[in-house]
Amino acid sequence: QVQLVESGGGSVQAGGSLSVSCVAYGYSYSNYCAGWFRQAPGKEREAVASIYSGGTTRYADSVKGRFTISQDNAKNTLYLQMNSLKPEDTAMYYCAWNYGICWSPIRVENFRYWGPGTQVTVSS
Questions:
Q1: Strand intervals (E) in 1-111
Q2: Residue 87 and residue 70: Cα distance in Å, rounded?
Q3: If 0-12 CB within 10 Å is exposed, 13-18 middle and 19+ buried, where does residue 77 land?
Q4: Which parts of the chain register pLDDT below 50?
Q5: How far is the CA of 34 from the CAs of 26, 41, 48, in angstroms?
Q6: Which of 42, 55, 67, 118 has its CA 20 to 30 A from that of 90?
Q7: How far apart are the first and last CA of the chain?
């Protein structure tokens, strides 16, 4: 059974930076697609970024140039570096993981495993 555990996040003022990470315990395949999603109160869960085990990345337009997704395959760890944060980035951030390739566009239904989420709050 795959278990995702997120860490990081927190609170920051607009313009600041935060990072979140996610460890995938129990995943033993070399190929995977991993991603970050976020959900603000009263809104649907939306894609932030995805990364294939081979390194190909995709980003939502709203975070391009500000967020960077990365990975450490040896540690089954996923990272999201968030710079130039805006109040509208405030949300619960979720790590997601699945076997095989990453599909475009990034969709919730393309991921089988999910972390419990970590809160990111950006104040103006």
A1: 3-8, 10-13, 18-25, 32-39, 46-52, 57-59, 67-72, 77-82, 91-99
A2: 23
A3: middle
A4: none
A5: 14, 23, 11
A6: 55
A7: 40
